[in-house]
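Quick one, probably user error.
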């Protein structure tokens, strides 16, 4: 079942670059996995695929 269920505990996150929204600044920005690794702290990533969609 390799590759069927995304990442498992202990696996490294593949390199990525995503657009973000910072409510404190009130604007959009960008972050990449390399920047997070350089900080050397734990990071939890989650998302809601339908956020900010108009219904």
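Nope, works fine. Designed sequence:
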């Amino acid at each position: 079942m390799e590759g069927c269920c995304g990442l498992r505990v202990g696996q490294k996150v593949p390199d990525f670059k995503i657009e973000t929204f910072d409510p404190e600044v009130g604007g959009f920005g960008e972050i990449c996995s390399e920047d997070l690794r350089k900080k050397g702290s734990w990071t939890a990533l989650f998302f809601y695929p339908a956020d900010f969609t108009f219904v």
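The mean pLDDT is 78.
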